[in-house]
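Teaching assistant's notes for section 4

Start the section by putting this record on the projector. Ask students to predict, before seeing the second block, whether PDZ domain-containing protein will look compact or extended. Collect guesses on the board.
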Amino acid sequence: MITHNSTWLLILSSGHSSGVIANIVFAYVIIFVQVLSVGLPVQEAFPGVLVPEVRAFSPASRDGLFPGDVILGVNGIDLPKTGPNLVSEVVDVIKKNPRRNVLLKVARGGQDLEIGVTPDKNSDGMGRIGVQLSPNVKFTKVRPNNLIEALNYSGREFWGLSSNVLDSLKQTFLNFSQSASKVSGPVAIIAVGAEVAKSNIDGLYQFAALLNLNLAVINLLPLPALDGGSLALILVEAARGGRKLPLELEQGIMSSGIMLVIILGLFLVIRDTLNLDFIKDLL
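Reveal the predicted structure now:
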């Protein structure tokens, strides 16, 4: 009979968790290299949403928004402080108002302005104004004085990023109907990585670490094609007192899981490709 302790020994020795462990270790190593090379980023938040980029000939450019503007309010509602959902809240207002005037309160060069922007209507019926938005934050770098400090800084940053990933996962499951449409595939991830590289090369460290932590979490999902699926089969075997599932059933589960992952991957690649800006301009 397989006991509780022998089950965990079987899981650890089977190699089915090696991918998850590798992603976690690699994420920590990336953060450690970042701390040693450029220092630990310390974030200071300011009110509003920053506009780093305004695309030429876009509604935002046409109506008078400039790179470096800070959006302090939307349709008469002030944005008093920055937060994890502040950018998405502004984006949601723009998406819900195609071809309708959206009044923005904007800070520019020490002055507060009110600018009306009329979003264009996308092929999906949503509004867009052609800007890149980001939290209005500034980063300073704290460099460690010795190896112990570097390990301490890396551990704190690793724990913070891991907490963010787990919180995001929890919100995804609690609001699955709303979150499912926001799941990104490889094309969208590459596009985001390219944007990060253009705006701030230091941000690539954070992006790569977050990507590995997300891969570790995804790899733990109980899908047959992933490490989590293999671990689930081991747990089922343990619950059956060490008796394996029939070979035909196990092969059927693995095949269906692989097919599901392939179909989901193709769907995400096609959807993300169609959502790229230059593809939208061609359609």
